């Protein structure tokens, strides 16, 4: 604040040229500082890809602009501006308090909290989508496609990241079979629910015919999650196939065939089915590696056919052995019958 006695009546102070010069210089300094602060603030972007980064971004912006707004409401500041408005109205207009107020209102509107609407879990996706719809209707910032889509894109990214963290392909097949299968199915349901809830909300909006359209860039919102859902389906199929093989080539088959070594050899081949998944040199959850993942799955299917063939081959071999044994056992009786009738 300038070294001026602000207790003097406003009009009297406006008549004091020395005091006015100091006050005008003070206002010009405020203008410079405020412009620099706003420019720096408007250049900032959310740090991170998830929705919480967006929330933190608006919280920080709201706190900064609230502090600036509160300072401009101080009695001493108001007195300085009142005096300058009398002698130099253009100077106060250049301060552009309306611009500060505009950004402050916007930040306050978007100062969301960490609530259930952004906890990306299976049970909360439906209410989260409804909350997004309310944000679309109420917010003066997020009621435009170019602002709502990035927010929803962040939520989609968070869902995808959660799935990638939970499903570690390099260890997934060594975990408890039932737990791994359930975890994979839950991940797939979560990814699919994200899209189905969006389509459900969209259908209700279209049916009502009252609110703004609810149609955003589906590639940006669902390309990643749709791809991950297909990967989850592949992983679940792999676990199902392994489970079926282990059930078939178990102790019962070993006892029936009487050839446990041959069955163990097949089981070793079954164990080898998941080795390519455990030794991947690329990220299977990245859509840019979809071709490599397809090759891995094609190889897996080919190996499964080989194991199927081994199973059929083992069964046929066992049947042949049993037929041979039965024939060998019955041959002496056939040879002895003429001798018996001769006595």
Helices and strands, with pairings:
Blueprint: H1 10-14, H2 17-43, H3 51-72, H4 75-87, H5 89-95, H6 97-109, H7 125-138, H8 145-166, H9 169-172, H10 177-208, H11 218-248, H12 251-257, H13 260-271, H14 275-278, H15 290-342
Helix pairs in contact: 2-4, 2-5, 3-6, 4-5, 7-10, 8-10, 8-11, 10-11, 11-15, 13-15
Descriptive overview:
- It comes from Aquarana catesbeiana (American bullfrog).
- One of its GO terms (molecular function) is dynein light intermediate chain binding.
- This is Dynein heavy chain tail domain-containing protein.
- It holds the Pfam family DHC_N1.
- By secondary structure, this protein is an all-alpha fold.
- The protein has a domain of 114 residues.
- Helix content is 78%, strand content 0%.
- The relative contact order is 0.06.
In short:
By secondary structure, the chain is an all-alpha fold. It is built from 15 helices and no strands. The radius of gyration is 37 Å and the shape is rod-shaped.
Which keywords apply here?
mainly alpha, 15 helices, rod-shaped, 343 residues, 78% helix, single chain
Q: What is the radius of gyration?
A: 37 Å
**Class from helix and strand fractions:** mainly alpha
Report the strand count: 0
Distance between the termini: 138 Å
Percent range of helical residues:
over 70%
Helix and strand pattern = HHHHHHHHHHHHHHH
- Put simply, the count of helices is 15
What is the 3D shape?
rod-shaped
Low-confidence stretches: 112-120, 334-343
**What's the pLDDT, averaged over the residues?**
78
Describe the largest sheet: none
Strand content: under 5%
